[in-house]
Structures are given as structure tokens and as C-alpha cells.
Design goal:
Helices cover about 35% and strands about 25% of the residues. Strands 3, 4, 6, 7 and 8 form a five-stranded antiparallel β-sheet that branches. The protein has a three-stranded antiparallel β-sheet with strand order 1-2-5, with no helix packed on it. The protein has four helices and eight strands. By secondary structure, it is α+β, with helices and mostly antiparallel strands.
Length: about 230
């Protein structure tokens, strides 16, 4: 013989499903008052409690919306202050205190030590060892240093910039190359630069000047001689 046990099944429900479930049970009791004539507490009392919970849920939603708005305001304020610290105060403290780390600490700032690269040899210049021309419409420049004879950049040099001029009179220097219509082509990658030339220039001469850029100032340090190769 089977025994019937009534279960409410109201656990582990979302807030909205819980409210709907309890309302359904209370309204069912109101619709069928004779099924359980001595219901305790009354369905109306349960509905009042449900309405109270719904009111608190609405208040919670409003508070959550307010909290989200305040969080955005807080994050915006923090972002502004980070900008002030990084872009303004840190520089002003640096200028005022210099290398006096004690003063920097007393002002509640931190510091880091950066390695300053040794300046390159004043005679250090980029050298184009060879220009490969066997691919039509392309030049491949292999670049080394005049002192080390290696592809690696010397200490203190950030990169090697490449300038080129297609056809025309051979330039004497970078200023003349630019005046002749030449310009910046790009930077070498690990001692190698590939220049893909536009069609219609076959047989013309491409002139190149290589420029070392200083790491500290980001400005030109030294210039190569003019190199040239015929466009295949």
C-alpha cells in the first residue's frame, strides 16, 4: 500500500519562481476554502508576507542599481586619480627630488631603477653588407655594424631606419635623398630589411641610406653612406 505525503517543493527556487509558487498555493487555498477549512495561517496572511517580500525585493533592486551607479562613479574617480599620480605628480616629484630616494619615500612614492645603456661609439654606423636583387621587384638588405661586423645593434641604439629613393640623381646625403622625392621605408628587423618595389620601376636604381636611432633620445645618431642597386 502506497502512502501519500504532501510536499510543497519550494526549496532551491529563484526569487521570482519562489514568489510565483507561494502565490499560486495561497490563491489556490482562497479558490478552494472548503478543502482545508482550518488553514493556519490564513492564505491572506501568507499573501501579505509575499507582498512584503516583493516590496523588499524591489527595494533591493533599487539599491543594487544605486550601487552599480556608485561603483561606476568610484572607478571613474580612481581612474582620474591614477592619471594625476602617473602623468603629473610622479613627474613633479621626480624633478624636485631627483635621485634622492629618501625624499621620494617620504613623499609616499615608490621608485624603480632603470639601466641606462652606455652611449654607442661615436664612430658606430650602420653598414649594408649586400643587397640581394635576384627576386624581381624586391631588394633584400643585409645590415651590420661597422665596428662589430655583426647584425646586432650596438649598445644605446634603438633601431635602424631605412630611407630610399627610386631613380633620379644619386643623393649625397639624407637631406638630398628626401629632396629628390625619397623617404622613409621602414626599420630593419634583426639586420634584415625587405623592400618590395612598385611595378614599372624595372631597370631604375634604388638608393638607400641607413640611420641609427639613439635609444635615449629617439633621434638619429649616425648615417650610413649611400648604397644602391638596380631594380630587377
Amino acid at each position: 500500500m502506497e502512502e501519500i505525503i504532501v510536499v510543497p517543493k519550494v526549496s532551491n527556487l529563484s526569487d521570482s519562481d519562489f514568489i510565483a509558487n507561494i502565490k499560486a498555493k495561497a490563491n489556490a487555498q482562497i479558490s478552494h476554502p472548503l478543502y482545508v477549512p482550518l488553514l493556519d495561517p490564513l492564505a491572506s496572511v501568507v499573501l501579505d508576507k509575499v507582498n512584503l517580500i516583493e516590496t523588499k525585493m524591489d527595494e533591493r533592486t533599487e539599491l543594487l542599481n544605486q550601487a552599480q551607479g556608485k561603483t561606476k562613479e568610484i572607478n571613474s574617480g580612481k581612474k582620474e586619480l591614477v592619471g594625476i599620480m602617473n602623468k603629473k605628480w610622479a613627474g613633479q616629484v621626480q624633478n624636485a627630488c631627483g635621485d634622492n630616494t629618501a625624499k621620494i619615500k617620504e613623499l609616499a612614492f615608490s621608485y624603480k631603477k632603470e639601466h641606462t645603456p652606455e652611449p654607442p661609439n661615436v664612430e658606430s654606423i650602420p653598414v649594408c653588407d649586400r643587397i640581394v636583387t635576384n627576386v624581381p621587384g624586391m631588394h633584400i638588405l643585409w645590415i651590420t655594424n661597422n665596428i662589430s661586423k655583426k647584425k646586432a645593434l650596438p649598445s644605446g641604439i634603438l633601431r635602424t631606419d631605412i630611407y630610399g629613393q627610386t631613380g633620379g640623381t644619386a643623393p649625397a646625403d639624407l637631406t638630398q635623398l628626401i629632396a629628390n622625392g625619397g623617404g622613409y621605408l621602414g626599420e630593419a628587423d634583426k639586420g634584415k630589411f625587405i623592400n618590395t618595389l612598385p611595378g614599372g620601376n624595372k631597370g631604375k636604381i634604388e638608393y638607400y641610406i641607413l640611420v641609427y636611432i639613439l635609444k635615449k633620445t629617439k633621434k638619429p645618431f649616425s648615417y650610413s653612406i649611400v648604397y644602391s642597386a638596380v631594380i630587377g
